[in-house]
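hey m, so remember when u said the tokens were messed up on ur end? i reran from scratch. heres the input so u can diff it against urs
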Amino acid sequence: MSSNRIDDHTDGMDLIVWVNRWLMECCGDPFSIGSYVSWRLGPVDDEFLAVLPKEEIVAVVATTGGHHSGLSDDMPATRGTVAAITAVRCRYASGAKADPCILYPVAGSAVLSALDFADGWTPDLGELEFVGYLVHLTVSQ
């Protein structure tokens, strides 16, 4: 299921944006608290965010676009300043789905930790695998 919660962002508004690990590793530019960024934003996949605590799922309004993200290159960029960065790590387990050898993220298993810098290469912590970032972005025109 997808939702589109970014229709009405205005200057000075704070958005919480999901940044996928794979996207950062593939073609993302590192950023830190205070960085000015310009990102194409699209609807977030609520099903994937199920690893997060419920209050965090509700807060996430968009995901970043980029190479192979499915977002159009014509989509306008949202510009803003990074106010906070949170690393998201979760557990994976085999599922009872078609192939029990495939690992799936475990709903509600996320562990969140504040960071000052994001480059996509945040390390795992034991059985908790790094999956992405929650970024608090203060939008500017």
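this time it looks ok to me. DSSP finds two helices and twelve strands in the chain. if urs says something different then somethings off w ur setup not the seq
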